[in-house]
Amino acid sequence: MRILALEPYYGGSHRAFLDGWQAQSEHDFTLLGLPAYKWKWRMRHAAVTFAEMVAKRVDQGQRWDAIFCSDMLNLPEFRGLTAPHVASLPAVVYFHENQLTYPQQRAKERDLHFAYTNITTAYAAEAVWFNSKYHHDIFLEAAATFLQRMPDYSHADVLDGIHDKAVVHSPGIDEFPARGARRDGPLRILWAARWEHDKNPDDFFAALEILQQSGIEYRLSVIGESFAQVPAVFAEARRRFADRIDRWGYQTSREEYVAALLDADVAVSTAVHEFFGIGIIEAVTAGAFPVVPRRLAYPETLAALESDETAAIFFDGTVGGLADRLQELATRQQAGRLWGATPQRGRLAMRQYYWDRIAAEMDAAMDNLR
């Protein structure tokens, strides 16, 4: 199958998703991507830009069997602007995130135009894929509430059609090398997430402060992508915990990123927004013990891990609860029983997300569009 893949925000997890799928797919992709910044502008102009880009390829004789796009494309707009034989192709939209439930940094009115674009794109597509059941559910719930607020012509019935064609396809991950012998030293704590407010770094660093005041020894690695506006707490934390830091900032190569994950004992999330949580999934695959709040997508994506031995992966979502859990794990690490009797449990459980399996499932789903 020849797939025309359109990604208005070709960076970060969006890029990793398409690159990973293509590398394992049996299908032939034409990937058109735009730089990953100024997301609002990308959502506004991408349909026009892609229509122009596609027109040039059509003139060169290129043809496709299906369209694949992310939630950041206005699919109806693109179909209205592109050649009729392209517009008539079956289309799949993949929801990495959505603009109905994405948390706002400040108390301000949500830009509902982008939220409505998400709904019309899902309505126009032949298939709607979500990265988790959690995401699927909260999007449809929020969309129903949103449309009920409209003064008239709410078209709330379109959600029935979206529900009927919506499925879950988790993103994939690459396999990680096996861990070597652990270096001596205290508990090594990893934060591997975007440096933005929705990942709730304030709670993470507040919990570390409690550990520090309690005299608990630990080492710290804080990695992940940052943007123009970085929450001030990161600079403050770098000064406060300077004598404990092993790694700080974006890891510029895959090798550095893998090394950071392989070195970690525990990987922590305090997120208030997470539709999948690929950073935690990768850390667990690399052998780190996850410590996450029992909310968002985590109970779903880490379900294969939960047992009496691994109940400690979930904390209550509070700063104090996280500090207590990390202190408990520091003690377990000293005793050499962080994972209990099954040290490979995390690595084995996360094999369900390896790209060879995920790509085959998505290839088959694309074939079913014909």
From TrEMBL:
This is tRNA-queuosine alpha-mannosyltransferase. It comes from the Bacteria. Residues 174-332 form the Glycosyl transferase family domain. Transmembrane segments: none annotated. Residues 2-173 form the tRNA-queuosine alpha-mannosyltransferase N-terminal domain. It comes from Symmachiella macrocystis. GO terms for molecular function: tRNA-queuosine(34) beta-mannosyltransferase activity. The keyword Metal-binding does not apply. It catalyses: queuosine(34) in tRNA(Asp) + GDP-alpha-D-mannose = O-4''-alpha-D-mannosylqueuosine(34) in tRNA(Asp) + GDP + H(+). It holds the Pfam family Glycos_transf_1. Keywords: Glycosyltransferase, Transferase. Its EC number is 2.4.1.110. Belongs to the glycosyltransferase group 1 family. Glycosyltransferase 4 subfamily.
